[in-house]
Amino acid sequence: MARARSSRSRPRSPWRRRIVVSLQILIGLAVLALGALLIAVYVARSQLPSFEELKSSPNGQMIRVHASDGTVIVSLGPSYGEWLSYGRIPAVMRDATVAVEDRRFRQHPGVDPIGIVRSVMVRYERGRWVQGGSTITQQLARNIFLNNQKKFGRKFREWILALALERKFSKDQVLELYLNKVYYGGGAYGIDAASRKFFGHGADTLSLSEAAVIAGLVKAPSNYSPTADAEAAVGRAGVVIDQMVRNGFITAAEAAEAEPKSLHLAPEPKQNSVRYFTDWALPQLDTLIDETQAPLEVWTTLDLGMQRTADAAIRQQAPAGTQGALVSLDRDGAVRAMVGGKDYVSTNYNRATQAVRQPGSAFKLFVYLAALEAGHKPEDTVVDEPVTIDGWSPRNDSRRNSGQVSLRTAFAYSLNTVAAKLGQEVGFTTVADMARRFGITTPVNTHPSMVLGTSDVRLIDMTRAFASVANKGVAVAPYGITRVTTNGQEIYRHEVDRSHVLVAPYVAAEMTDLLQTAVNTGTGRAAQIGRPVAGKTGTTSSMKDGWFVGFASGLTTGVWMGRDNARPVAGLHGGTAPARAFAQYMKVATASRPIEQFETQVTLPEWQLEPDEESYFGAPDNGTAAVDADGNPIAPAVPGDGYDDDQAPVDVRRGSDEDGPPVQAAPPQRLDQDWLDRVTGRDGPREPSRPRPAPREGLAPPRFDQDDRPTQ
């Protein structure tokens, strides 16, 4: 008996005590967690809106965009069809959704433990989350109350809300809410909006194949949208139908009769070029306002008449097989027209704001601005002669050098050698700084060849720079949104900043002097519209890009044309199709505006040169394809192209001597007589006593030296 008492009084081993204590703690924690969960669920249930309130609450934000005259040009955001009660929703639509999204929908309390375990196992096997295990109720909670962040905290709140929803509403009510509020892609919320968008009729008459297509969209609306990828949509519908058979919703015979491939989709509404503008302008709302829920009315600068004219000009003038873009800015920076390509439906890539291309000689705007700011005047003379800078030797398209010319003449005929000399004089870094000062946002290199436009730019940036010159040197910032209202209350209004002066007014006036000369008698003659116009052409490597940017009557317009793959376009120069498109658009766009004279009247060059086509090696070739990393030319000499094996100029008109190489050209400062006759218009036999041409009205008379060569 003493032995028995001693056995009962013997203390338990420490490890057994630890196990018991641990179990007690775990049970206690589980009870506390369960209690906290129940409290959280019932608190959430008490705070949930009523069924009628959830029916009326929209998902997403509706945005209506207005043109400058108030016309609604596009409505964006969610579209809603008719609300269908549970009884009006076709059984095939309900069954298809349950089969593919939550086959234990009728059994679980809002959260599916089996689905959660399965998703964890898949996560362990594949090393990443592939299946979320979300039920229909969880998806409804997420769509209405939460977001799509993949964080555990959000997932836990989703579980609480899902459990609360099923404590407050029946399964049928949950499914009705889900089918009427879930997002199906293309802006469509709910099965009725999706049915009308994709099939052109209401959801109460959906067939099995149509229901399978719509049910399959929930997983990835953008990937399985019938309008974006019909093949993917059909493939996904097949998966849905297989799941319906597997879960007993339909028979194999019914599945065999379904033919998703034979479905006829409703035609997509035609979209015009205004979408290039809205795609550019609307993302700016994120920085302008904080409202993300209430419907918005957005009032913009777009002029529908100008937009139609711009669209027609690009379509009609751009060469076959090319693309074109146009941006038109009012004097305060308001975007009146924007065309990013020939057809928005086939390609929504906005070449006016996104594409970066070489501007060619249009970039000389910044070279001459830097020279004028440094003290040069349009009448100043400079020698057009061969020049080599750090091994780089630019040449004019004419293969000729004209000797002493004014800056006005050099700019009007886009003489490359003069631009190079000016860039070297003021400093290539100074030119790059001037470009950035005027709004060029892309990187600008400082190689010598940069003066000929070898740095990529955006059309909207180049147009902005020219608009700032037209604005007397005051910075112009493009904008598209004038004001925003919600529920009748104004929450944003644009204010124009006129305080940022880029260059002195006289520098801008002198630059305008050069620009209007280029249009009146230089490379931009095709841009004339019967009123004062100032502008500049640009042509790049092997005619890959054509530019014209100019202004008249307070409106600045930039035009670009070329191929997206940067392949050459035969005959494309800035002074051809782009200048013609500019003129076609501006004649209509400025028709109702008063004619405005520039502060400096146009002064034509003292004598006419052959228009330079902004060439780099004879043909328009200002691009980086013709220069190495240091800006030096790398194109090999072509026999008979006017240069010998050492790249020395030869007189190609005279050909070769019978016993030797081509004869070297005459000194560049002195023009031979054939050339002189051609550029001065004095064709035919020359007589010493021939009277000199009379000066044009308003122009200084031409002057000649003792050899009858024109002088400055």
TrEMBL record:
Keyword Iron-sulfur set for record: no
Residue ranges annotated for the Penicillin-binding protein transpeptidase domain, each copy included: 330-560
GO cellular component, one term: outer membrane-bounded periplasmic space
Residue ranges crossing the lipid bilayer per the database entry: 21-44
Metal-binding as UniProt keyword: no
Catalytic activity annotation: Preferential cleavage: (Ac)2-L-Lys-D-Ala-|-D-Ala. Also transpeptidation of peptidyl-alanyl moieties that are N-acyl substituents of D-alanine; [GlcNAc-(1->4)-Mur2Ac(oyl-L-Ala-gamma-D-Glu-L-Lys-D-Ala-D-Ala)](n)-di-trans,octa-cis-undecaprenyl diphosphate + beta-D-GlcNAc-(1->4)-Mur2Ac(oyl-L-Ala-gamma-D-Glu-L-Lys-D-Ala-D-Ala)-di-trans,octa-cis-undecaprenyl diphosphate = [GlcNAc-(1->4)-Mur2Ac(oyl-L-Ala-gamma-D-Glu-L-Lys-D-Ala-D-Ala)](n+1)-di-trans,octa-cis-undecaprenyl diphosphate + di-trans,octa-cis-undecaprenyl diphosphate + H(+)
Recorded metabolic or biological pathway in which this protein acts: Cell wall biogenesis; peptidoglycan biosynthesis
Keywords: Carboxypeptidase, Cell shape, Cell wall biogenesis/degradation, Glycosyltransferase, Hydrolase, Membrane, Multifunctional enzyme, Peptidoglycan synthesis, Protease, Transferase, Transmembrane, Transmembrane helix
Region: Disordered, residue numbers: 613-712
SUPFAM superfamilies: beta-lactamase/transpeptidase-like, Lysozyme-like
Pfam families to which the protein is assigned, alphabetical: Transgly, Transpeptidase
Biased composition (Basic and acidic residues): 671-690
GO MF term (any one): peptidoglycan glycosyltransferase activity
Top-rank taxon: Bacteria
Family according to the record: In the C-terminal section; belongs to the transpeptidase family.
Name of protein: PBP1A family penicillin-binding protein
